[in-house]
């Protein structure tokens, strides 16, 4: 497995990306990485890991604020475009970037190409549940407007990802809606409910907002606009609640005996809630393993994103999604 890593993607690139690559190689010694970016940023680490890292020098970078379509079309020598072309040409098995989400999605769609039979790729993410597991939420930003048929394909892709990469034997699929009854929602969700009921044995019904983290679902599907708002709301709420929680506990934690009991548990909770543990969001429906990291990713998040890209490539996720789309 050869995974292309965008050395120039992210708020703290290239330094944090290089550090993340080193962590990934330590965790998975068999991993082969193709670092794409400015030569001066990648040459030193490539020299240290000459048997595991190869580099490709690029001269352009796509910024976070640029128009994705224009940037992909005009910056042919950018790390994102060159990285996706390597996958498209069969020279690599997957691509990871913490750069512009829109640019990665555009480049992957235009250059790597969609899986045959998939109308629209979707971005998925993992959210921790109260049952000590995770739920896959998608779409979280690729498609603001959807058709019922798209939601059916999202469900099939999410189910495949849950089963093959996450190890869920019988994934339970939910449709994000404003009520449990099949008559609830707008025209798209009502039609999607009927379609999912007819086509998917794994569909268990509508999921309301307060059920997203309940553990009752393994995959929850929605349109990209709603999914992105939900994701950002959960991330912001979690971060703020944890800060308030720590402030409330501060007086008690001054007692060493109490601190010895509580702090290890808080560390476990923080680790579970941290986006670092997820690393990246898969772009499902692309002819290759493509993962998008958060722009503010730490080295640990970069490493986990690279490893997730590797795992998806290893099981041939895109090929199996292609079979499921038929």
Task: Report Rg.
Answer: 20 Å
User: What is the terminal-to-terminal distance?
Assistant: 26 Å
Helicity range of the residues? 40-55%
Mean pLDDT: 91
**General shape:** globular
Unreliable runs: none
The SSE string, one letter per element, is EHEHEHHEHEEHEHEEHHEEHH
Furnish the topology, listing elements before pairings:
Blueprint: E1 2-6, H1 15-27, E2 32-37, H2 39-48, E3 53-57, H3 68-74, H4 79-88, E4 94-97, H5 101-112, E5 122-128, E6 134-138, H6 148-164, E7 173-176, H7 187-199, E8 203-207, E9 219-221, H8 224-253, H9 256-273, E10 281-284, E11 289-292, H10 299-314, H11 317-325
Parallel strand pairs: 1-2, 1-4, 2-3, 4-11, 6-9, 7-8, 7-9
Antiparallel strand pairs: 5-6, 5-10, 10-11
Helix pairs in contact: 1-10, 3-5, 4-5, 6-7, 6-11, 8-9
What does this structure look like?
By secondary structure, the protein is of the alpha/beta class. 48% of the residues lie in helices and 16% in strands. The protein has helices at 15-27, 39-48, 68-74, 79-88, 101-112, 148-164, 187-199, 224-253, 256-273, 299-314, 317-325; strands spanning 2-6, 32-37, 53-57, 94-97, 122-128, 134-138, 173-176, 203-207, 219-221, 281-284, 289-292. It has an eleven-stranded mixed β-sheet, sandwiched between helices. It is globular and about 55 Å long. The two termini are 26 Å apart. The mean pLDDT is 91.
């Amino acid at each position: 497995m050869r995974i292309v890593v965008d050395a120039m993607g992210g708020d703290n690139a290239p330094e944090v990306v290089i550090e993340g690559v080193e962590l990934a190689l330590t965790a998975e010694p068999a991993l082969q990485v193709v670092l794409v970016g400015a030569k001066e940023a990648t040459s030193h680490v490539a020299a240290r890991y000459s048997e595991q890292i190869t580099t490709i020098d690029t001269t352009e970078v796509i910024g976070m604020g640029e128009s994705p379509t224009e940037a992909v079309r005009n910056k042919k020598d950018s790390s994102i475009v060159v990285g996706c072309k390597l996958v498209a040409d069969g020279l690599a098995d997957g691509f990871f970037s913490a750069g512009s989400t829109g640019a990665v999605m555009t480049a992957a769609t235009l250059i790597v190409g969609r899986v045959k039979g998939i109308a629209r790729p979707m971005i998925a993410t993992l959210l921790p549940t109260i049952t000590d597991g995770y739920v896959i939420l998608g779409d979280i930003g690729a498609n603001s407007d959807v058709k019922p048929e798209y939601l059916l394909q999202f469900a099939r892709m999410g189910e495949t990802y849950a089963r093959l990469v996450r190890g869920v034997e019988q994934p339970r699929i939910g449709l994000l809606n404003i009520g449990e009854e099949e008559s609830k929602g707008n025209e798209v969700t009502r039609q999607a409910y009927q379609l999912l009921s007819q086509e998917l044995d794994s569909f268990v019904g509508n999921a309301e907002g307060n059920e997203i983290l309940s553990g009752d679902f393994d995959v929850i599907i929605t349109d990209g606009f709603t999914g992105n708002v939900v994701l950002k709301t959960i991330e912001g709420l979690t971060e703020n609640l944890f800060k308030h929680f720590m402030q409330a506990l501060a007086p008690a934690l001054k007692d060493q005996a109490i601190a010895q009991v509580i702090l290890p548990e808080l560390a476990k909770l923080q680790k579970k809630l941290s986006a670092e543990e997820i690393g990246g969001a898969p772009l499902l429906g692309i002819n290759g393993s493509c993962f998008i990291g958060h722009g503010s990713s730490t080295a640990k998040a970069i490493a986990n994103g690279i490893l997730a890209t590797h795992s998806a490539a290893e099981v041939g996720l895109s090929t199996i999604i292609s079979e499921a789309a038929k």
